[in-house]
Amino acid sequence: MSDLLETILRTILSVSLLMISIHIIGKQVISHMTYLHYIVHIALGSIAANLAFETKLNFFNLTVSFVIFVGISVLLSHLALKSRTLKKWIIGKPITLIDKGKILEKNLSKINMSLEVLTENLRKKDIFDMNEVECAVLEMDGGLSVLKKAIYLPVTCNDLALQKADISFPIELIVDGEIIFENLTRKNLTMNWLEKELVKRKLVHKDVNYMILGTNNQLYIDLYQDHLK
Hints:
Number of helices: 9
Helix content: 40-55%
Structural class: alpha+beta
Number of strands: 8
Order of helices and strands: HHHHHEEHHEEEEHHEE
Strand order of the largest sheet: 2-1-3-4
Largest sheet: 4 strands, antiparallel
């Protein structure tokens, strides 16, 4: 086998293993980078890179190492769910940085975070005045969660004693002229209902590029031919 062909095959396997590992470990490796997931991210990436390009390294040994590492990370995640003590060591724990409007300097010191970095993270939350903050917590993934003081919180419908119509998750009914039957079933809608809605607008489903039932149960329809002026 030529070096080029071997590299191509190893790269394909490497990418395949990475895709499979994401499904096994969970999408939180991408969106929720805790201590454990940070280590997993670096180690698996390094092993996969060596598997793809280092043809001098044993193919089988690297694959076994990759699989074992995925298995260990899944096991540690499972143990973290079962034990609060282990969870603190494996995943970490949230740290309160501001409580009742007061900055907790000792907690900042524990994580080596300066006041400049804290204020920068607050600005990213659209908070430029420290007086607005009631509580701030550094989450396990490194993100900052902030609770504003009551007087700075936005007014809600509940505050104004207003009733708001129920909202639901938007769902696609037609995509590229094709009816998504499973979504109709999920929303307890029938083909008869869909056809009536299309007839009201003098349409057939083949005319529709995109049709979605929105959060307020209103239909949004985009046609292939929009006749823009």
